[in-house]
Amino acid sequence: MWQFVIVYTIGILVAALLLYRIYRFFFVKRGRPNPCAGCSGCALAEHLK
Amino acid sequence: MKLSDLRTGEKGIIVKVTGRGAFRKRIIEMGFIRGKAVEVILNAPLKDPIKYRVMGYEVSLRRSEADLVEIVSEDSIEKELNGNTPLTIDSKQLREIAEERSKTINVALVGNPNSGKTSLFNIASGAHERVGNYSGVTVDAREGKFKHKGYTFKLYDLPGTYSLSAYSPEELYVRQQVNNEHPDVIINVVAASNLERNLYLTTQLIDMDSNVVIALNMYDELEKSGAKFDYESLSRMIGIPIVPTVGKTGKGVAELFDKIIEVYEGECEISRHIHINYGEELESGISQVKSILKGDNSIGKDRSKRYISLKLLEGDREIETEARKLPCWDKLFEVRDVQVKSLSKEMKEDLETSFTNARYGFIDGALRQTYTDGPADTMKTTRMIDALVTHKVWGYPVFFLFMFLMFEFTFILGDYPMQWIEWCVGKFSGFIGNNMSEGPLKDMLTGGIIGGVGSVIVFLPNIVILYMFISFMEDSGYMARAAFIMDKFMQKMGLHGKSFIPLVMGFGCNVPAIMSTRTIESRNARLLTMLVNPLMSCSARLPVYLLFAGAFFGKQGGIALFGLYVTGILLAILMSRIFKKFLVRGEDLPFVMELPPYRMPTAKAIFRHMWDKSSQYLRKMGGIILVASIIIWFLEYFPQDEERNARYDSQIAAIEQQYKSQPDREEEMRNLILDIEQTKRMEHQKNSYIGKIGRFSEPLVRPLGFDWKISVSLLSGMAAKEIVVSTLAVLYVGDGDNTDALKDRLVKEKQEDGSPAFTPLIAVSLLLFVLIYFPCIATVVAIKNESGSWKWAAFVVCYTTVLAWIVSFLVYQTGALFI
Fold first, then answer.
1. Is this structure's pTM higher than 0.90?
2. How many beta-carbon pairs below 8 A join chains A and B?
3. DSSP of B700-768
4. Interface predicted TM-score (ipTM) of this complex, two decimals
């Protein structure tokens, strides 16, 4: 039972994070466009954040 | 806050006066000095001019002049402190804040590409920005902040430019940053190894009447060459202080910033504005145009009238556009056109060339008095190496050999640490599996998280080795040579020689590669390069290649890898020619590119690049790969069918009961149970959410030899290509204990009819599909931003997917006829 609780909690958190990232991608306008949009990739992305 | 923002009756303390030259000097002489209190007495009708009280007397300023004065006021500070502390104009706190802000110096780094700006920026601000030994590395401004002797420096590293004309996006960008952002001081980084070319930009900064300090960088190379350079004399001649620096080691950087403080405080004796003498004819033309501007007081705060006149005579488009907004524009252009016509006739050439020649004449004269060549030829080594690598016959094999060795070493050397990491991941998974009770959490940890993330993390050594080679190529200066020998080849592709560097950068990551297309002056070549860049296989796809190359090609894996990259390049050539012919037509600009001297990259720089790459790869593991693995696991785990599970469990129980009393047939029993578990798993997967998604898309990929699991894995690659591997790891669980490496599981995996899920032919088809199909979302967004349109981004997504399907289809169907 406790395993299901933890798994569902993780599931909800991940789903919320995904929806939040999708919302930010489409609806949050930034002053300067971030070409790395969501990619955690490289030092350039870190700097542009 | 600006002085013009104050309302009638409000008070503030002056922090600094921006702007330039005589304009700024006049405002300071009127009493608007740092640290003084100023009060708004009255706004004239139409809110211009404004009457102020400062230093005990009243003075009027135009609104445009008041815009140049930065202040702090009670209101602005109260808002920042959230109104917690009541303040009055005489309070010590407000004065201290004004004092602190007046000690903030905005500094812009300007200079030729490859002059060492970013090295200086890194040393000064402690940042780790990317430095490469070829032009086009910095494509956007970066900001750094640090303190030195009680002053706060805000440092802006701008892209390298050879001049401040308006030809390419980065030249225009740098000029706009200098003119519109009003840095307090500009550091003009001049490479001591090539003074004549570097000082050309300095002459343009002199024309712009900016506060400049020259960092005479790579000074150690000048000293080593034996040359003698009296930089102090040159400094007095041009009215700009010069400080020798060595960006690699940080020598002279502290002195440089001491000098900046002196210039900022107006205490530098050397700093003065001079006019470059362009000769009698051109000076006469400048005077004529300037006389029209003299009557217009709305200009002059951003740029000097002399500078505007000069640029109009040169035909500068950006200045012309701004000049058309002036009230006197028709008279101005009339006089300008007359001057251009008569001067061009007199000089027997266009005025832009005349001004350029005059600037180089000025530099030549200055250097004749201050510079003496050394005996040693520091370019000897460079020339010897160039004789081979840029040879018209041997250059190409050397290049391809280097590329082949790069991939071979990536595969071979990376295999050993990869096996160690695989072992650790297997042990960790086994530990969880043996010590945790059965349930969904155990399944998620072993099959989802460790399975997904672990399957990608094993490729870290290969990625790092590949980047080490790319970094070496960039830092040593070989990249510029490769662009040089590939220019003719690029032209045949319909591209520009400068396209080569962004294309090679695409082997690392397509996103910075697409951003670096800004260095290509021609818009057509820039767009073409962006369109074909995704065919340059990025490092994110490498885990997929290594997985299948390792599983199905054994020791020939390195050759398979090289073959894939060559295929990508060949496809890029083909698509480039097609696009050039039908889609992006137009003339090309000439190829002008610097070939810097070879430099041995320091071990520190190489290790720093390897560390940076490792840390960003690990961040990706903990970020997007982890999230994707959990999502894929959820879609694969649910919905659970208790009835089906109970049916299979009872079958297993029946077999165990049947073989209980036959210990000699234990192996047979175990095989039967494994078969049942395999069937149970396959049926569960087929009916899971991910199975439904996969089976919906399966008809599209069946002709390519792929099953639904592969189609789902390919779809998941939209976010990041490494996720293809983690998805495969979640879906292909083998016999359930998950301790086998993924590649071994893929080789053993069977379809429902018992046939192998993967064959070498299917592997080749899949590898080609992954090579070509749509790039990750980050790349798509980068294409949109750089091309200025979603149309091109959508086009790239569509054409790459269609091309991938066609190529995989042809390879698989043709191969199936023979195998």
1. no
2. 81
3. HHGGGT--HHHHHHHHHTTT-THHHHHHHHHH--TTTT--S-HHHHHHH-B-TTSSBS--HHHHHHHHH
4. 0.71
